Amino acid sequence: MSTYENLLFRSEDGVGIVTIHRPKALNALNAATIHELDRMFDELGSDDSIKVIIITGSGEKSFVAGADITEMQHMSAVEGRNWGKLAQAVFSKIENIPKPVIAAVNGYALGGGCELAMACDIRIASEKAKFGQPEVSLGIPPGFGGTQRLARLVGKGRAKELLFTGDMIDAAEAYRIGLVNKVTAPDELFNTAKAMAQKIMSRAPIAVQVCKAAVNEGLDVDLKSGIAYEAEVFGLCFATRDQKEGMTAFVEKRAPIFTGK
Ligand code: DAK
Questions:
Q1: What is the pLDDT of residue 137?
Q2: What is the CATH number of domain 7-201?
Q3: Disulfide engineering: 149 pairs with which of 31, 118, 155, 205, CB 3.0-4.6 Å?
Q4: Where are the domains of the chain?
């Protein structure tokens, strides 16, 4: 792994843990951090030793408190558009990397922070986490995919309420509306995320990978096309050794040993 200024990285038992680390700005995403995330996800994508990725924020208070407002303050329209496009491309890279990505949301997930969490496959929140898209208070709409991913996750009406009011919601409300998958005590957050990562890692890797691709592809197309895509990846999995192993193990009443082949 190359060196990073605003990200910390460690690997534990096949789980890659990426920590956004800009403590002075509550881990707000400046351009340098977005570029580092881009590079980090390229490295993680090609590192076969990493099976599942967890993203979290440094410290107790914040996951990511948004895009860095001081950097955006004096941007021109063209600079704003380019900044939005850059971060959107990086978030799409995270969303589509062929490995599960879990956001362990330890505190504020506002603006670009909420958008980063939504680009992940699964969100686990500490009871102390707070979510929101406060951009309208700054004179802008969300620009890192928030208007699109929030509506897909929580539905049009709830998304519009959060987007129009800029209100912050707590973890319990985020869970109630389906923005997060689980809520845990703050000191259980990492273990809960890691336990989920390990459970996923115990399943057939190619099957998990195609589930991710099928959900992502399917949500962008009509049901008929999504179902057709599913049939293709379902069929392809019969060419894997793990399909033979999974079904043989079931018949032999033993646990499967998957190899990712
Ligand atoms: N950017 C830069 N610095 C930030 C920051 C941010 N988003 N959030 C916090 N900080 C900094 C504070 O300025 C403060 O710095 P110092 O004054 O100590 O130097 C330090 O972090 C600690 O923050 P506070 O003192 O404010 O801490 P509090 O506990 O009092 O409040 C807070 C915590 C999270 C409620 C508050 O910091 C806050 O409201 N932060 C801003 C949250 C926010 O509005 N986030 C959304 C950012 S806008 C687009 C591209 C991108 C976007 C949209 C469009 N296009 C190109 C189309 C995305 C926009 C956003 O994400």
A1: 97
A2: 3.90.226.10
A3: 118
A4: 7-201, 205-251
Per-residue pLDDT tens for 7-28? 999 999 999 999 999 999 999 9
Task: Give the per-residue pLDDT at 1.
Answer: 86
135 CB near ligand 1 (under 6 Å): yes
Q: What is the pTM of this model?
A: 0.97
User: In whole angstroms, how far apart are CA 62 and each of 89, 103, 108, 147, 205?
Assistant: 23, 13, 4, 22, 32
Q: How far is CA 191 from CA 98, 185, 248, in A?
A: 23, 10, 32
Q: Tell me if 90 CB under 6 Å of ligand 1.
A: no
Question: Which CATH number is 205-251's, of 2.40.50.140, 3.40.640.10, 3.40.50.720, 1.10.12.10?
Answer: 1.10.12.10
The predicted model gives 107-131 an average pLDDT of: 98
Nearest protein CA to atom 40 of ligand 1, as residue: 65
pLDDT digits (tens, 9 = 90+) for 153-179: 999 999 999 999 999 999 999 999 999
